[in-house]
Amino acid sequence: MSPRKRDEPVRLTKIYTRGGDKGQTSLGDGKRVSKLHPLVQAYGAVDELNSLVGWAQVEVADHRLARIQNELFDLGADLSVPYAEGDGKLRIAQEAIDRLEADCDEANAPLPELRSFILPGGTEAAARLHVARAACRRAEREVLARAPEAPVNPLATVYLNRLSDLLFILARAHAGGAEPLWKPGG
User: Fold this and answer.
1) pTM summary value
2) Is 110 left (phi over 0), alpha (psi -120 to 50) or beta?
3) How far apart (Å, rounded) are the C-alpha atoms in residues 163 and 155?
4) Each residue of 48-65: pLDDT tens digit?
5) pLDDT, tens digit, for every residue of 147-156?
6) Are 172 and 111 in contact (CB under 8 A)?
7) DSSP 8-state class, residue 148
């Protein structure tokens, strides 16, 4: 078998390896660590988020979500290797955050002003996007919680914060005017 090219993501010929049977896994740099390692916890939360974005994408078919799923894989790769500035590894960059901000502005422009908090739900699409948003917030907390123990790209949490905003806006857009509003004490 010829060596993998740098731009070739991965080659998988056999899915099970037995390498993790005793609670160990490999980080992106090849170092073997516990599956409870802080970086494994962080990129695991991002992996779960990516699955939920994919679940939402099945319902909403939004080109932005397809791009975001790829970016979330990039973020997982970023988190799987301890961060060192200028290390040449695949890292989430400011450009990805700028794209999310532009997406937020574009998706929010036609929506009416918010006058209440919104309860998750409204339509199938909105509910799925709200579940993804909540998982995004949890992934952000996981990355923040791990940062003192394992160095992470400081833009990782910014990306997740902005993504949760976009998922909220998209949930509003896909509620089709059927946003359930919070009624305090109701």
Assistant:
1) 0.87
2) alpha
3) 12
4) 999 999 999 999 999 999
5) 667 788 899 9
6) yes
7) T
